[in-house]
Write a structure and sequence with these properties.
Elements lengths: L1 H31 L5 E6 L2 E6 L2 E5 L7 E10 L5 E2 L10 E5 L6 E9 L4 E5 L2 E3 L9 E8 L2 E7 L7 E8 L6 E6 L5 E4 L7 E9 L4 E2 L3 E9 L6 E9 L2 E7 L6 E7 L7 E7 L4 E4 L9 E9 L11 E4 L7 E6 L6 E6 L7 E8 L6 E7 L4 E4 L7 E10 L4 E2 L6 E4 L7 E9 L2 E7 L7 E8 L6 E6 L5 E4 L7 E9 L5 E3 L3 E4 L7 E7 L5 E6 L7 E8 L2 E9 L4 E4 L7 E10 L2 E2 L6 E4 L13 H12 L19 H11 L20 H9 L19 H15 L25 H9 L6 E3 L2 E3 L8 H11 L4
Parallel strand pairs: 1-8, 2-16
Antiparallel strand pairs: 2-3, 3-6, 4-5, 4-7, 7-8, 7-9, 10-11, 11-14, 12-13, 12-15, 15-17, 18-19, 19-22, 20-21, 20-23, 23-24, 25-26, 26-29, 27-28, 27-30, 30-31, 30-32, 33-34, 34-37, 35-36, 35-38, 38-39, 38-40, 41-42, 42-45, 43-44, 43-46, 46-47, 46-48, 49-50
Helix pairs in contact: 2-7, 3-4, 3-5, 3-7, 5-6
């Protein structure tokens, strides 16, 4: 009886709770009648069918003043009803139960702090049983950039399929493709070589409702390594074969396989350590005058590459050609010449590569005893490289290659960088660079005024790089050029140089603007056409003294290394040789107060940058507080620092999934996006609150300087080869990172005695300040 009585009490308690939930639902429903307006900020609603009776929902929490979310459901053509589910504030998911045989429509509403009820999400519609979870998946690596997937459904049914992927070491899955009904295969070609990838698939009832993934943990496969290329070989003797190849992967070893005519199948001939690109096969099984086939693949402990191309080599020794030379006299053809050191070849092969192309191609074949060749298919101002080898046609017999030779197809290269300096009122010294090594001599030519005729005023010997003209005055304008010539009468000219020793006109409209506690930005109007420089002067003890010089045709200068809160008077003069213009107008500027922070003692290397940018109001951190220089910063804060430092803040707006107008760095992020400095991913997300990596920071800075109109000079990615982590760098970003490193905006780190760029590590606030400060001080 006691047990029965206890059970009855539990039933009563359950009925009371159910009644309360029902009453609450009715009350909420009464509120909902008026809540038909949409919220100003809304979210997409998605659902995952958990079973035949259960579905889970997710949405984004983009509001800051909500009190409660509510889930509504409509069955078939009925009306919306509030589901009796408790959803807590800031929640972004819930689960609901249903019955089969109906069509359901769901949406989420939100109750704000003022008790206003709004529609928060879009509607999703589905019918239980319309889709089923996949029940099979195979993952097959095909090449270094392709992995193939194949999947199936119970009863061989067909649905729209979503494919998800994550790389090894990552925890989040990303959608990479959606495949239509009736398709059950997909080739993933957006992968990196030698990486392990996990895949899973799920059926999609529509854009918002999907089944659980199969399998939940995913199935994995390694992509192949990049295969070795340019496999090449020749006989060193009747019992030795030399092999060379190009290494394209981060392998642990190479496996060399050989096929002999006696065995007819490839067998392992050797295992070569990583980064080695040559091998001499001295196997005692090698026989004279016998043709062997070779192939090679790269391997690691987890995966391998495809095989290289197969080459055939015969153990017959041919001595290679030597002393290969090239020349170009007319800019239209290249002449090759070499020495033939063998008497049993049937011919020679001419191999060529052009410009910066790294791939050699068989260009032409020549007959026996040939020692010259003329290439008639060259373009003016092009670079061409050549090498030659001997061959015996019938037996796949080749010699080693000759030396390589490179030629520039030009008539004769012009003298470069013609400049002058003033010696006296009637004499100048001309200077240039001799870029040719085949000239017979030089001519110095001069004309009076822009419309004058050119006259030769002097003949000079080969290799000359200077000339003094003592017959010049300070009233006329002269033009000079240097003419180079060779024995074939090929000629070329240097740049033209204007020289005027007139007193230059004074600059005007000088203006000054204090940038920071130690920098003042000066601008002026250039009124002269013959200045060689501008002299910047500042008053000190009632006299003006020179503090810097700016190049000709320049109209600005940043005066640095000044004292904080110092009032200074500036003026500018134009310079032409020994002649100074009258001074410009004088301007006064007061440097800003130096900004200090209390925790910079451990980052003395960054103190100047932090203080300078602080006085420019780049940071949101108040002076005389803690700066937290070692704290890792987010992408949003880094963008703000760069955008403010380079003065790129624009009046712009945008719509991104993870950036609202309330975001702390909204204005700077929108400016960066509008200028193409950053871009959203396929889900329209910018990730402003994610910690930024050194790679991301370098790319953003390079893009910002480009948007500023001061792009970084190009640097070949080979400058990064000095770093131990070069091969792990993202190929698509190496050019930008090379430019950032080459400009000194990023430096390497020493780990275990070896240099690393460490692009995947996070950026601290001090590092960000130094990068931005260096960017505005580039020469």
């Amino acid at each position: 009886m006691r047990s029965l009585h206890s059970g009855n009490k539990n039933i009563l308690r359950y009925i009371k709770k159910a009644s309360l939930v029902l009453v609450l639902a009715i009350l909420i429903q009464s509120i909902y009648i008026a809540g038909t307006a949409h919220a100003l900020v809304t979210s997409k609603l998605t659902g995952v069918i958990i079973s035949d009776l259960q579905i889970s929902f997710k949405w984004g929490d983009y509001l800051t003043n909500e009190k409660q979310y509510y889930l509504e459901r409509k069955t078939d053509a009925g009306s919306y009803e509030v589901r009796p589910i408790t959803i807590y504030t800031n929640a972004t998911s819930c689960t609901d139960y249903y019955e089969t045989g109906h069509t359901y429509t769901y949406r989420v509403k939100v109750l704000d702090a003022d008790n206003n009820l709004y529609i928060y999400t879009d509607e999703i519609i589905f019918r239980p049983g319309d889709v089923q979870k996949p029940d099979s998946l195979t993952v097959t690596p095909i090449s270094s950039n392709q992995i193939d997937l194949k999947w199936g459904y119970p009863g061989n049914k067909a649905y729209n399929t979503i494919i998800e992927r994550r790389a090894e070491g990552e925890t989040s899955w990303g959608e990479i493709a959606r495949v239509g009904i009736g398709e059950n295969t997909y080739s993933d070609k957006s992968i990196w070589s030698g990486e392990r990838y996990y895949y899973r698939v799920r059926a999609a009832a529509n854009d918002s409702v999907v089944t659980p993934a199969y399998p939940d943990e995913g199935k994995s496969a390694y992509s192949f390594l990049y295969k070795p290329t340019e496999l090449y070989g020749f006989a060193l003797s009747s019992y030795q074969i030399q092999l060379t190849w190009k290494d394209n992967s981060i392998e642990t070893a190479f496996i060399i396989e050989r096929k002999s005519p006696d065995e007819g199948v490839f067998k392992e001939a050797a295992v070569v350590p990583q980064n080695v690109t040559a091998f001499i096969d001295s196997d005692t099984k090698l026989k004279p005058n016998t043709t062997y086939s070779y192939r090679i693949k790269a391997v690691t402990g987890a995966t391998a590459s495809e095989y290289s191309e197969v080459i055939n080599i015969t153990t017959t020794y041919l001595k290679p050609p030597g002393s290969l030379t090239s020349s170009c006299t007319d800019g239209k053809s290249v002449q090759l010449q070499w020495q033939d050191f063998t008497d049993n070849e049937t011919g020679f092969e001419i191999w060529r590569k052009t410009g910066t192309d790294s791939v050699w191609e068989l260009y032409e074949s020549m007959g026996r005893n040939a020692t010259t060749f003329t290439d008639l298919t060259v373009s003016l101002e092009g670079s061409y490289s050549y090498k030659v080898r001997a061959k015996i046609n019938t037996n796949s017999v080749y010699s080693d290659f000759s030396n390589e030779t490179t030629v520039w197809s030009s008539t004769i290269t012009a003298p470069a960088n013609l400049t002058y300096e003033t010696v006296s009122q009637n004499e100048i010294k001309l200077t240039w660079q001799d870029t040719s090594n085949i000239e017979t001599g030089f001519r110095v030519e001069r004309k009076l005024g822009l419309g004058g005729e050119w006259f030769t005023i002097s003949y000079l010997e080969p290799n000359a790089v200077t000339y003094n003209d003592k017959w010049i005055n300070d009233t006329d304008t002269f033009f000079y050029r240097i003419k180079v010539f060779d024995r074939a009468n090929s000629v070329n000219y240097s740049n033209e140089l204007m020289v005027s020793l007139k007193k230059p006109e004074a600059p005007s409209q000088l203006a000054a603007n204090a940038l920071s506690s130690n920098e003042v930005f000066l601008t002026w109007k250039d009124n002269s056409s013959n200045e060689s420089q501008f002299v910047i002067e500042v008053m000190q003890y009632y006299y003006f003294r020179e503090v810097g010089r700016a190049a000709s045709n320049t109209a600005y200068f940043i005066c640095k290394d000044l004292n904080p809160e110092k009032t200074l008077t500036f003026r500018v003069r134009a310079v032409n040789g020994n002649s100074l213009s009258d001074p410009s107008n004088e301007v006064v500027a007061t440097t800003k107060k130096k900004v200090a922070y209390s925790d910079l003692s451990g980052v003395s290397w960054a103190a100047e940058a932090i203080s300078s940018l602080g006085s420019r109001n780049v940071f949101d951190i108040p002076p005389d507080t803690r700066f937290y220089p070692s704290q890792k910063i987010t992408k949003g804060e880094y963008c703000a620092i760069v955008i403010r430092t380079l003065d790129l803040v624009k009046s712009s707006a945008g719509s991104y999934s993870d950036v609202t107008s309330r975001h702390r760095y909204y204005k700077e992020l929108m400016s960066a996006a509008k200028l193409g400095i950053i871009a959203p991913d396929k889900n329209n997300r910018l990730y402003p609150d994610s910690t930024i990596t050194r790679e991301q920071a370098g790319i953003i800075l390079a893009q910002a300087l480009k948007a500023k109109g001061t792009p970084l000079p190009y640097k070949d990615s080979s400058v990064l080869r000095q770093f131990a982590d070069y091969k792990s760098m993202t190929p698509a970003s190496t050019d930008k990172i090379a430019a950032v490193y080459g400009a000194g905006l990023m430096t390497g780190k020493i780990k275990a005695g070896r240099p690393y760029l460490d692009l995947s590590s996070s950026v601290t606030r001090a590092e960000a300040a130094v990068m931005a400060y260096k960017a505005i001080n580039l020469k």
